[in-house]
Amino acid sequence: MDKEFSNIRIVDIAKMAGVSVGTVDRVIHNRGRVSEENRKKVQAILEMVHYQPNLMARSLASKKQYHFVAITPSFAQGEYWEAISEGIDKAASEMESYNITITKLFFDQYNNKTFDDIVRNLLDEKVDGVLIATLFTDSVIRLSRELDRFEIPYIYVDSNIEGQHQLAYFGTESYDAGVIAARLLTDRISPASDILMARIVHSGKNDSNQGRNRREGFCRYLKEMGFTGNLHEVELKINDSVYNFTKLDEIFESNPNIEGTVIFNSTCYILGNYLKARAMQSVKLVGYDLIERNTQLLSEGVITALVAQRPERQGYEGIKSLCNHLLFKQHSEKVNLMPIDILLKENLKYYLNNKL
């Protein structure tokens, strides 16, 4: 509202429009009968003074209860998804006075079936809005279509899925994050050297939507830049260091020209621990996400660079967007891109403990 009209009252708007206070009230709250002529008069004045109704007071006066559900991977302390959860908690705390409750449902990020299991009976209870971590594309699309059928708004975080009717997406362009990783790595290795791409495998898990997009961006950059080295791939396990060390020993012994390594999720520390144990200081490593096990190796110079995406803000903004849509009829952009941060040993201290 302009400073000139900062203290304007409904009675003032009524006088300016030449109508009654009751007519102004009905137009503002879109209730009751108002002639088209009077509606236009009131709306013209409202636009002129940039009138904003007191949405907070309106919400507090409402007795309606809202139930949101957040569907994200489970996590241990210090892992990537803990930050998403903290953002959700912060938004929930701020929304507490608006009669909002949030239920968190967790699935195993390495097992698609666990996602399907927890959402199977999601709509048996009253649900007003849903936040979804989009790791499993096909499963998320099935859930999205079910939510569409019941006209329940939903938010995507982590990676976007085109062609759906999500209210909004909060996250990065995963493809671009892959391009950035490729540039960071190729700028630090010899032009004709080889690159090792590592992938974490687990029973029941395919690559996540985000991981596939990052890999595509990474490989496309190499192709467009005329990369002449060889690309090698290795599959590692999330909790089996003996297996991982054996596989990595084999591939490095067979391919001594490998100078760069990359992994497309937050488990960069798995490769980092190997390089540290084998004292392979000359091999460059680029990965993702500002989690403690990664940042420790970055500070030691084992990890060359991390690409980060502000997960706390994704969870926070996702819940806030649902709230603004349902309570205040305010709509966010459909695609809301988070900054892509490039973390090096030299600037790491500026990002530690820099949360919402």
From TrEMBL:
Ranges where the HTH lacI-type domain occurs: 8-62
Record-given protein name: LacI family DNA-binding transcriptional regulator
Source species of the chain: Bacteroides acidifaciens
Superkingdom of origin organism: Bacteria
SUPFAM superfamilies, per database record: lambda repressor-like DNA-binding domains, Periplasmic binding protein-like I
InterPro entries: HTH_LacI, Lambda_DNA-bd_dom_sf, Peripla_BP_I, SBP_2_dom
GO molecular function: DNA-binding transcription factor activity; transcription cis-regulatory region binding
Pfam families per UniProt: LacI, Peripla_BP_4
Alphabetically ordered keywords of this record: DNA-binding, Transcription, Transcription regulation
PANTHER family linked to this entry: LACI-FAMILY TRANSCRIPTION REGULATOR (PTHR30146:SF144), LACI-RELATED TRANSCRIPTIONAL REPRESSOR (PTHR30146)
